[in-house]
Amino acid sequence: MVAKIFIDGEAGTTGLQIRERLAGRRDLEVLSIAADKRKDQDERKRLLNAADVAILCLPDDAAKQSVSLIENDSTRVIDASTAFRVDPNWVYGFAEMDKGQSDAIANARFVANPGCWPQGLIGTVRPLIDAGILPTSHPVSYNGISGYTGGGKQMIAEYEAASEGASHFMPYGLTFQHKHVPEMTRYTKLDSAPLFVPSVGDFAQGMTTFVPLQLGQLGKVPSGKELHAAIADHYAGIKDSFVTVAPYQEIAKTPVLDPQVHNDTNTMTLHVFANDARAQAVLVAVYDNLGKGASGAAVQNLNLMLGVSARESLAA
Ligand SMILES: NC(=O)C1=CN([C@@H]2O[C@H](COP(=O)(O)OP(=O)(O)OC[C@H]3O[C@@H](n4cnc5c(N)ncnc54)[C@H](OP(=O)(O)O)[C@@H]3O)[C@@H](O)[C@H]2O)C=CC1
Ligand SMILES: CC(=O)N[C@@H](CCC(=O)OP(=O)(O)O)C(=O)O
């Protein structure tokens, strides 16, 4: 059976990328909306109800509206927005988060695609919490840099219009109320919100994130190799993982931390750097905000929901 897919918001940054990733797939039919009807509620409703899977690439309010327009009990939904990420009726779409997550996604009707920033934090911290190395009470801080496509069409237009004026490096979220904090807290299993300081750079896509750890604050101080082994063990146990763990290296710098190294792929690479004598470490994640951070993860989730081999079809 050819599954019918409707991308609501197909003209936006994430929607366009998903369309490109699905182009050429013979196992799917993409139901496209006429350009002049993109925001026509009746036409969106018709297509949402005609689809086997609707992928919502919309601002939060419009995503909530799309869900309310589904009147059947068969259309399954992948939502790329923040609207449902901590809703207990939705399955969180970070397939590598734990061993049961890809099955939960495969069987779900409603899947909330994870935010780009949360994945770098959850992907590094949760394996350490699950392994009992970090207590859930640990005060975690998280920072990083993302390309400007993370801000969608509006930020892209601002950066691309400002040939001279765009900021090379812009920290933001400085009131510590970033919209990703609730999902970061819930899915890391931390007791309290991580202190999150994102930044945006003057490059289009790709991101590198950092979790600095003062290991001396822990009752039992792990070595860098132990941190690395716990994270590597977690991913070794995940079927069809798109998250890879780089070998442990004691080096002061490396070009593979460039935020753009995984652009246009669904890959995330994790690194552990540490100084055991100082009991200090940093956990690093490198991935594409538009790939594993958004449209790559959405297509990975779609494949799980359709029972299609993730590796084969993510080549698209
Ligand atoms: N960019 C990224 O890296 C990531 C984005 N996301 C999330 O994905 C979602 C989409 O983001 P992104 O693609 O970046 O955003 P964009 O602004 O690039 O695209 C959003 C699209 O939705 C359309 N739209 C807005 N309101 C409606 C409506 N009522 N009915 C139909 N279409 C509507 C917009 O129309 P118009 O073209 O007229 O503006 C636009 O085409 C957001 O919730 C975002 O937070 C998630 C992870 C990463
Ligand atoms: C650079 C930039 O502005 N990035 C966006 C995050 C993009 C993203 O992940 O969107 P969702 O919130 O829908 O997941 C931000 O920090 O708001």
From TrEMBL:
Pathway: Amino-acid biosynthesis; L-arginine biosynthesis; N(2)-acetyl-L-ornithine from L-glutamate: step 3/4. It comes from the Bacteria. Belongs to the NAGSA dehydrogenase family. Type 2 subfamily. Gene3D superfamilies: Dihydrodipicolinate Reductase, domain 2 (3.30.360.10), NAD(P)-binding Rossmann-like Domain (3.40.50.720). It is found in: Cytoplasm. The lineage of its organism: Bacteria, Pseudomonadati, Pseudomonadota, Alphaproteobacteria, Hyphomicrobiales. It comes from Devosia oryziradicis. Residues 4-105 form the Semialdehyde dehydrogenase NAD-binding domain. Its EC number is 1.2.1.38. This is N-acetyl-gamma-glutamyl-phosphate reductase.
